[in-house]
Amino acid sequence: MSRREGIQRHRFIIHQLSKRPSSFKEIQDFLELQESLSEDKLTCSQRTLQRDIKEIEQDYHILIKNDRSRNLYYIAEDGREEHSERLMETFDLYNAMRIGNSFGDHLLFENRKALGTEHMNGLLHAIRHKRLVEFTYEKFEDGAVSRRTVIPIAIKEARNRWYLIGKDGGVVKNFGLDRMSGLEILQKNFKPVKDYNVQSEFEHHFGIINGTGEEPQRVVLSFTPKEGRYISSLPLHHSQQEVLCNKKEHMFEYYLVPTYDFRMELLSYGHTVKVLEPESLKKEIIKQLEIALKSYK
User: Could you give the C-alpha distances from 165 to 143, 151, 200, 210, in angstroms and in order?
Assistant: First the structure.
């Protein structure tokens, strides 16, 4: 059995027990079904299942116990963090791609430019060991190319792109990984950036734009029922709260800074969304819609 098959089996065991407590036979039946789909060796002995349960607790912080009175396994504690779930999703995608190689045109991916993820290992190494990094960077605005020496602070995802948050010339900036080249990890160490916490800096922001000096505020949006169901299943922001749901509209409340990124996201929903609060955001969206309408006249 390969390590990949072991990780895959862990994923399916967690998936089965997340749905409902299950007996050893029910777990085996589910693994057998997945085995027939992937052609990997996934079924296991009860002894192997016990080893898997220990590894799942160590790797994913998910505690699985056996209710001997009902002869059922169940998830007693689920300590998964967001990054752990993303890793599991990535592994699912990897397996789909691997299986999809033999399915021709039945598994379709967007044709898009590389995201610069090849720089991640080097940047994370530099962050961990407090090393300065140097890279060539091309701006989106005017295509200008320059060589930068930066203190790396963190890596952030925003709208399907990855960014380095780093201090450049005394100012914290965002650099798209897909616009980097010639990355070098220098032998020069840096001191941690004081008075800057990346989590708190982006807590009330949507996307990658921050540092505008604006205060977060209450934002209320009304979506059509159909679009509202999509928004409910995939929230726009972690502060999202549902305040109304009926046959006419689906209303959500947020607490954030309505930056350019957020306004562009709202405009992408067209007529399916309406800004109710604050009035300043409502006026800005109306203004942008009027500008767009004029370009068609």
Answer: 20, 9, 13, 11
Task: Report the alpha-carbon distance of residue 73 to residue 14 in Å, rounded.
Answer: 11
Single out the residue in 65, 100, 135 at which a domain terminates: 100
Q: Does an H or E element contain 47, and which?
A: helix 46-60
CATH number at residue 122: 2.30.30.520
Show Cβ contacts of residue 227 under 8 Å, excluding neighbours closer than 6 positions: 250, 269, 272, 273
pLDDT the model gives residue 222:
97
What pLDDT sits at residue 99? Answer: 63
Q: What is the pLDDT of residue 104?
A: 55
Q: What is the CATH number of the domain that holds 246?
A: 3.30.70
Phi, psi at 182, each rounded to 5°: 60, 40
**pLDDT for res 161:** 87
In tens, the pLDDT along 115-133 reads: 888 898 899 999 999 999 9
- Residue 106 placed within a domain: no
Closest CA to 8 of 48, 47, 35: 35
Q: Cis peptide before 278, with omega less than 30 degrees from 0?
A: yes
Give the structural domain span for 54: 3-100
Amino acid type, 66: N
pLDDT beyond 90 at 13: yes
* C-beta of residue 161 within 8 angstroms of C-beta of residue 147: no
Question: How many separate domains does the chain show?
Answer: 3
- 36 in any annotated domain: yes
How confident is the model at residue 142, as a pLDDT?
78
DSSP-derived letter for residue 257 is: B
Give 115 or 39, the one with higher predicted confidence.
Answer: 115
- Last residue in a domain, options 164, 195, 226: 195
**What does pLDDT average to over the chain?**
88
